[in-house]
Design brief:
The complex is a heterodimer of chains A (481) and B (243). By secondary structure, chain A is of the alpha/beta class. Chain A has two domains: 294 residues, Rossmann fold (3-Layer(aba) Sandwich); 56 residues, no CATH class. Chain A has 22 helices and twelve strands. Chain A has a six-stranded parallel sheet with strand order 1-10-7-4-2-3, with helices on both faces. In chain A, helix 2 crosses helix 12, helix 9 packs across helix 10 and helix 15 packs across helix 18. Chain A starts with 8 loop residues before the first helix and ends in a 9-residue tail after the last helix. By secondary structure, chain B is α/β, with parallel strands linked by helices. In chain B, the strands form two sheets. In chain B, strands 2-1-3-4 form a four-stranded parallel sheet. A four-stranded parallel sheet of chain B has the order 6-5-7-8, with helices on both faces. In chain B, strand 7, helix 12 and strand 8 form a beta-alpha-beta unit. In chain B, helix 4 crosses helix 6 and helix 7 crosses helix 9. Classes of the chains: A alpha/beta (481), B alpha/beta (243). At the A-B interface, helix 1, helix 17, helix 18, helix 19 and helix 20 of A face helix 1, helix 2, strand 2, helix 3 and helix 4 of B.
């Protein structure tokens, strides 16, 4: 796993809220992609319900994942590719490093890959003395800055063009400019040199196709195609769930992926890679390796309540509509998997207690599900995670997150069972609020544990007489009641 | 379509009961005007949603069973909150998925529980309640009402029939206001920032009154309007329709 900083969720979120550059970048991102994706679904030839069909495709594929993966692997091996099943991040890294050592790799280029972030590939390569160059423009910027991606598809969304201008002036020694085409040209020039010199290329895999034995990558810059064809060795890493059984299914998922990710009908460069180059082919790697990563996914697969999360194809459509992500940005989540997908997948992969703020720090508004190209019920999954935290769960090694909170809800469950007790507490609140500071009838400050509310807002006081009380005492005519 | 002459049993959201009883009173006036018989079980407290959303399913189950006991004899149950109806309609069956007899009772109650505007427009087939309001109104879509119950057109139809009022759509009307139940206290800064965005959109659209169908959201919006010193009124749709 790459470094995790989720313990600072609340503090990081606050920092993000106070960063005006980030705030306007997030608003622009969501206005552009969030709305664009909704429109792209509506304009699908099959109509927006294709998402529901895709959900069903994913459900069936995941239910038969063992057979689907076997088919994929058999077809890739038939094409001369090598396949490695990695139980965890360490096994995947070890395989990548061993392959690199065997070829005496000094420089590796990388196409954008979230799963490589998940296993911490860059750190491992650098630790082994191998230079690694990110080739996606956004990832390249992040790597130069020594930061981590803040969005699955738009990793450098938190940086302004002025930030990038200064960064390029400092790191690749070009005269300062904040003109995007000039910056892109400078990056392209620097990256071309890396592509030409690299001994090895890494990529992820958007969705593999078992029937044909391909991994498929999508990019808008062509960098993944360069990373996977120019070096002598190509290593692709995929989460074990990222596969479609048939080409027909793959087509549907790919079209939805591009709409979800960038509101495009199709990404600019889509590569179907099925193995190393054939002898007579000029381009392509001599060796093709596919690393299929488990790293906690089998455990999710085994639990019917959470299995649906494996339907995710990491398009980031949910980030582009999530109102929480839209305020706090990706870094607050403390891991490259951010937004609603991160809020479910990180607790499941790396510990529910450890990532409790991610699944509790969401409003359950449901915008994510409507944006999801495969219609994953993310709110249901967040609620299921919260249930684990509320009472603990031996199977998932979850301990009860808060004993005082459990106490409060236990007390609450007694109160709501007895209307007289309920009335008593309502009156108590009514009396207690007399002493609270007010402005024009609105309470300005609540005591703990409610004090958070009034840090930024006021609140209406409890009414002198409840509705039920008014009804009971016949305050209003109820001749028909 | 159920029979429009059925007696309506009032399911009063706890926020309405304790903090905004005038919303319940407005609901009573609307049904009286429509000539509908009303029952209000005075033993009712809370449907259990706060506990369920925080993960406390055992405690939510206690509230749910009590709710079913109290309400299952009703012809039809109507509530002025989309999120409470979501709890009963969608989450009760989830709570009792391993308990056949409760599951059956939960489903029966769920099938006759409606949100107020859904009941008026879809079941009663009424859009014009003869209401009058002098002002410019905008409407906030509450998340559970919109995405769990798919109620979007019904409140707008009702609002469009109010004489004297001008209706304006705000930008991002369907974006979460940041309430989220205990989220608003536990993650208060994020919640307040979202509420501030919502209020900015309300101000920008030029309305003098913001109408919603759920007091959770409206309480949040009202709190932010008040803190910012903005003179825009919040109203539950029942209040404006009863005006």
């Amino acid at each position: 796993m790459s470094e995790i900083t989720t313990a600072d969720y609340i503090a990081e979120a606050k920092r993000a809220l106070n960063n005006p550059v980030l705030q306007s970048a997030l608003t622009d991102l969501q206005n552009r992609f969030g709305r664009g994706t909704a429109l792209a679904y509506r304009n699908l030839p099959e109509g927006p319900d294709l998402r529901l069909k895709a959900h069903d495709i994913r459900r069936k594929t995941i239910a038969n994942l063992d057979i689907v993966l076997e088919t994929l692997v058999a077809n890739i091996r038939k094409n001369g590719g090598q396949v490695f099943f990695a139980h965890d991040a360490d096994a995947a890294l070890e395989y990548c490093l061993a392959t690199a050592r065997r070829h005496q790799v000094k420089l590796a280029v990388k196409g954008k890959s979230m799963v490589s972030e998940e296993i911490g590939l860059n750190t491992a390569l650098i630790g082994a003395g191998i230079e690694v160059a990110e080739t996606d423009l956004g990832e390249y910027i992040i790597q130069l800055a020594g930061e981590r991606p803040s969005h699955i598809i738009a990793p450098a969304i938190h940086k302004s063009r002025k930030d990038i201008g200064s960064l390029f002036a400092d790191k690749i020694k070009i005269p300062y400019t904040d003109d995007p085409p000039s910056l892109t040209r400078a990056a392209r020039k620097a990256l071309r040199e890396k592509f030409l010199a690299a001994d090895m290329g890494f990529s992820g895999c958007n969705i593999a196709c078992a029937e044909t034995g391909h991994i498929v990558t999508v990019s808008n810059e062509g960098n993944i195609r360069m990373s996977t064809t120019m070096p002598k060795v190509h290593v692709a890493i995929m989460g074990m769930e990222r596969v479609a059984a048939r080409l027909e299914d793959h087509d549907i998922l790919l079209r939805l992926l591009c709409r979800g990710a960038a509101a495009q009908n199709m990404g600019t460069y889509v590569s179907y890679i099925g193995g190393p180059r054939y002898l007579q082919q000029v381009d392509g790697p001599d060796e093709f390796h596919l690393v299929i990563l488990d790293n906690g996914r089998s455990r999710i697969l085994a639990d019917e309540e959470f299995r649906e999360m494996l339907y995710c194809i990491r398009c980031a459509a949910c980030l582009n509509v999530c109102p929480v992500y839209g305020k706090i940005g990706g870094h607050s989540y403390g891991h490259p998997y951010s937004g609603p997908v991160g809020a479910v997948v990180m607790p499941l992969l790396a510990g529910i207690n450890r990532f409790k703020d991610l699944c509790q720090g969401e409003t359950l508004c449901g915008a994510c599900q409507d944006a999801c190209p495969v219609n994953i019920d993310i709110p249901r999954l967040l609620l299921a995670l919260r249930a684990k935290l509320a009472d603990g769960d031996a199977g998932w090694q979850v301990s009860r997150a808060s004993i005082p909170e459990k106490g409060i809800y236990t007390l609450w469950s007694w109160i709501v069972q007895n209307r007289r007790l309920y009335d008593f507490f309502l009156r108590l609140a009514g009396l207690g609020q007399i002493f609270l500071p007010k402005n024009k009838g609105m309470i300005r400050r609540l005591p703990p544990p409610m004090s958070g509310w009034t840090r930024g807002r006021d609140i209406q006081p409890v009414a002198g007489k409840s509705f039920v009380d008014r009804w009971r005492s016949g305050d209003f005519e109820k001749k028909k009641g | 379509m159920s029979d429009p002459n059925k007696t309506v049993t009032l399911f009063i959201q706890c926020l309405v009961d304790g903090i905004y009883p005038e919303v319940g009173e407005a609901m009573v006036r609307i049904f009286r005007k429509l000539g509908i018989n009303l029952i209000c079980p005075t033993k009712q407290t809370c449907c259990g949603q706060p506990a369920f959303n925080a993960g406390y399913r055992r405690e939510a189950g206690v509230a749910a069973k009590r709710f079913i006991d109290i309400f299952e004899a009703a012809d039809v149950i109507v509530c002025p909150s989309g999120s409470c109806v979501t709890m009963v309609r969608h989450h009760y069956p989830q709570l009792f998925e391993d308990d056949d007899s409760w599951l059956q009772r939960a489903r029966q109650v769920a099938a006759k529980t409606y949100e107020l505007t859904e009941y008026i427009v879809d079941v009663l087939g009424v859009e014009d309640l003869g209401a009058h309001y002098d002002g410019t109104i905008t409407y906030h879509d509450s998340c559970h009402l919109l995405r769990n119950l798919r109620v979007k057109a019904q409140p707008r139809k009702l609002l469009s029939k109010i004489s004297g009022a001008e209706f304006i759509e705000m930008n991002d009307a369907d974006r979460c206001c940041g309430f989220g139940g205990s989220f608003s206290v536990k993650y208060a800064d994020i919640s307040a920032a979202m509420a501030a965005d919502k209020v900015d959109n309300i101000i920008a659209c030029g309305a003098d009154t913001v109408v919603g169908c759920d007091m959770g959201c409206l309480m949040n919006i009202q709190g932010m309007l008040s803190r910012k010193g903005v003179d825009i009124k919040i109203m539950h749709i029942a209040q404006i329709l009863a005006a």
